[in-house]
Amino acid sequence: MEASVDIERLLSIEQLPEQYRHVIANVHVPIANALAAKTRQSTEKMLIAGLCGAQGSGKSTMALVLKGLLEEQGIATAVISLDDFYLTRPERTRLAETVHPLLATRGVPGTHDVDLALRTLDALSEQRTIALPSFDKAQDDRKPEHDWPRIRTPVRLAILEGWCIGVAPESQPALEHPINALEREFDPQGAWRRYVNEQLGGVYQKLFRRLDTLIFLQAPTFEVVYRWRLEQEQKLRERVGSGSTRIMGEAEIATFIQYYERLTRHILNQMPERADIVVRLDEHRQVTSVRTRSSRGGTAE
């Protein structure tokens, strides 16, 4: 089966290699079929599929392809990104002043408007036109509401993608010691990482409990994530131009990725046992295997 999405255009826009068409046929089509079957079985509510993966792992591309494949089967689908629910810069500035200075930087749990995400998911099941929140990473701030994209609802399936979707909080002993230079220098007493963990264990779990299926794009190691993040920033620079003051250089990215390191390592250890579908990637983002879990029980390759 091949969906009616414009594969050639997708390969061009996302700068994907030619062999990605085989990933669509062998990885995305089976996942889309499984989601479609589950959606058809649920006649009373909109289903939500969570898509978790490290920065640069291909979440946005996978979500886009799945949406096209599902809509080919007549299932109205919406894709929303956790990144679009980052707190505004003024809101993060207030957090930095009242809780911890590191919270001025977007990324970790505690820097998203989770209530807005929950309200948006609720609105997707209503019959009307809604505006989807949108965050401008080049400006490091949420776009004005009049610039948010608008879609017709209701939809039958929502794909919620984000780097920490579905993850459980760390244990308290795991928080005791800094794991990188950022934590040693700016969070030696652990106040920032404890706040992040408390947020993850609180309102974020309310969001994650809404998930009907959890898909994990598994990077091979944390070390490759830095290179993937560099590639992401280069794509952003090509899209908005090098004149933007919010585009990061290599040294800035090396620091920025440390904000994500603790939780990314935790996810790599935890998520393979939590996710319903695990798509393993090599360092070049090539799929090496797909594992599915039936009712979170046995697994199959």
What's the number of extended β-strand segments?
11
N- to C-terminal distance? 20 Å
Q: Write down the overall geometry.
A: globular
CATH-defined topology: Rossmann fold
Order of helices and strands: HHEHEHHEEEEEHHHEHHEEE
Quickly name the level 1 CATH class.
Alpha Beta
Q: Strand order, main sheet: write it out.
A: 2-7-1-8-9-10-11
Radius of gyration: 19 Å
The CATH superfamily title? P-loop containing nucleotide triphosphate hydrolases
- Stretches where pLDDT is under 50 for at least 5 consecutive residues are none
Helix content: 40-55%
Describe the model.
The structure is a single chain. The chain is globular. Helix content is 43%, strand content 16%. It has helices spanning 7-13, 20-41, 59-72, 89-98, 114-124, 181-186, 191-201, 203-208, 223-240, 250-274; strands spanning 47-53, 77-81, 129-131, 135-136, 141-142, 150-152, 157-162, 213-218, 277-281, 287-293, 299-300. The strands form three sheets. The protein has a seven-stranded mixed beta sheet, with helices on both faces. Strands 3-6 form a two-stranded antiparallel ribbon. It has a two-stranded antiparallel ribbon with strand order 4-5. The chain has one domain (7-290): Rossmann fold (3-Layer(aba) Sandwich). The chain starts with 6 loop residues before the first helix and ends with a strand. With 301 residues, the protein is an alpha/beta fold. The chain is built from ten helices and eleven strands.
